[in-house]
Amino acid sequence: MSKYFNISIIGSGNVAWHLSRALENAGHTIHEVFSRKHSNAKKLTRKLYSATAQGHMDFSKSKAEIFIMAVPDNAIEKIASKIKLPPDAIIVHTSGSIPINMLKGSFSNTGVFYPLQTFSKLSEINFGEVPILIEAKDKKTENRLSQLAKSLSKAVHRVNSEDRKGLHIAAVFACNFTNHMMAISGWLLNKQKLDFNLLKPLIIETINKSLDIGPDNAQTGPALRGDLQTLDHHMDYLKFDKSLQEIYRVISQHIIDHSGS
Amino acid sequence: MSKYFNISIIGSGNVAWHLSRALENAGHTIHEVFSRKHSNAKKLTRKLYSATAQGHMDFSKSKAEIFIMAVPDNAIEKIASKIKLPPDAIIVHTSGSIPINMLKGSFSNTGVFYPLQTFSKLSEINFGEVPILIEAKDKKTENRLSQLAKSLSKAVHRVNSEDRKGLHIAAVFACNFTNHMMAISGWLLNKQKLDFNLLKPLIIETINKSLDIGPDNAQTGPALRGDLQTLDHHMDYLKFDKSLQEIYRVISQHIIDHSGS
Fold it and tell me: What is the pLDDT of residues A10-66, one digit of tens each?
């Protein structure tokens, strides 16, 4: 049986937008929204059923029982230090890289509620498919966060701060670095007056294959084949930019060293 | 109006399989298939309407007018040197990284017919969406290759050998290197006893966003934010593997140096 929670949101960025609307759609009630920029809190409350934009961080009279901080990583500690909660309330942050211990101070029940997805205002996210990683200081809080997470997503995992850090680094490789490889690719094409769109079908098929059979089995290309002549040609082509040469060299070497492993 | 060509295929790998069947579906006739391993040529002909597996490279009596070499890059020169063609026939290779001049010898009409896609036996490819890059030594050959390519795909481009080399390097970054970033990500998750599947929704959303708004606009993460503290933590986490540290360092530095560019 579902339990519906009373929730307040601290923050008004992309995570706050997507999360608060998904929470309402799952039947929970959003009471207050706080944002350092009050007009942003107001903007968000207009998209919600009955939430109020609150101009201060004293929530001691709030009806909410769970407070979700969806603020930038480097603001978590500072904002947390100013928040006043009702007795027994739970406070969580939503960050992949910040340990639970950053929520210090007078809170009795702290946790992490990390939706492992990238959010932007423009694109809708099906929250049911988004892995939610939870962590809590005590079992009772963990159970409540688990209930809350399961009301949103089929993929709820208990992951502690140390493992979440490893996961975050893995995500940097799989997302930020893959994106940067595509950015470099686009610059190289531009230089040749060719359109990045040319590569899109190949990129889509490559990623699909990689996700389908696993990246270890999906690799192709000159480094995997140990085709040193082509690698030399490519290094020579890239000599106009030493940093691109270095990136090409270290990744190719790593592919060579780990092929067949 | 469509012109249907008489074609023979040299090679029996993934490109040969997908290409010969797409050519038949577009109305062309495949006459002979040659493979260094005769049994592979036979296997492919069984999937085609009326092609014969030929055990030698003397095609001087063939009815084909276009000969398509779909063989590994490093075999192109050697195989080409042994092929005998009928007068006026066209010979092309299908490689992204080999210049047209590799087709030396007694051929009068040479070209390149490069389908910019990754092929595997298991997954069907919609050839209509695959960019085909053509190049030819003379205008008449180019026109015929263009006709042939347009019968298969909406995306036909004339690209010379030098530009094709740049494109190939761009593809190494956008495909081989992105795949390797995902491989590393999977190893890091394994180390933490976490499942690569956890990251799939995030990877899919990241790639979609990157292809949608362009990788330059889609970047996120600690390097882009100039979050040196997180970068330090990540470098520290990766100290068990110097080569991963180096990859993390050079790519992060490159993101920092090119953010906002």
Answer: 999 999 999 999 999 999 999 999 999 999 999 999 999 999 999 999 999 999 999
Q: How far apart are CA B211 and CA B208, in angstroms?
A: 5
Cβ pair A224, A258 in contact under 8 A: no
For residues A119 and B23, what is the distance between their CA atoms, to the nearest angstrom? Answer: 43
Per-residue confidence of chain B (261 residues) as pLDDT tens digits?
578 999 999 999 999 999 999 999 999 999 999 999 999 999 999 999 999 999 999 999 999 999 999 999 889 999 999 999 999 999 999 998 899 999 976 798 999 999 999 887 777 888 999 999 999 999 999 999 999 999 999 999 999 998 998 999 999 999 999 999 999 999 999 998 999 999 999 999 999 999 999 999 999 889 998 989 889 999 999 999 999 999 999 999 999 999 865
Of B116, B194, B230, which has the smallest distance from its Cβ to A167's Cβ? Answer: B194
The residue of chain B with its CA nearest to that of A168 is B234
| Strands of the A6-10 sheet, one edge to the other | A52-54, A29-34, A6-10, A66-69, A90-93, A109-115, A132-136, A156-158
B212, two tokens? 């949608």
Our CA-based measurement puts residue B255 at a distance from the nearest CA of chain A, in whole angstroms, of 7
Is the distance from CB of B194 to CB of A166 less than 8 angstroms?
A: yes
Listed residue (A152, A62, A144, A156) closest to A111, CA to CA? A144
Residue found by looking up tokens 């920029």 in the block: A37
Q: Which of B205, B238, B250 sits opposite A247 (nearest CB)?
A: B250
Query: How far apart are the C-alpha atoms of B233 and B216, rounded to whole Å?
Result: 25
Sort out which chain A residues have CB atoms less than 8 A from B224's CB and list them: 176
What is the least distance, in Å, from the CA of A22 to any CA of chain B?
17
Among residues B114, B83, B119, B88, the alpha carbon closest in space to that of B100 is found at B114
| Residue A45 C-alpha from the chain's centroid | 23
B160: helix, coil or strand?
A: coil
- Write the secondary structure of A60-112 as one string of H (helix), E (strand) and C (coil): CCCCCCEEEECCCHHHHHHHHHHCECCCCCEEEECCCCCCHHHCCCCCCEEEE
Residues in B touching A255 (Cβ below 8 Å): 176, 180
Chain B residue with minimal CA distance to A216?
A: B183
CA of B221: which chain A residue's CA is closest? A176
Q: What are phi and psi of A149, to 5 degrees?
A: -65, -40
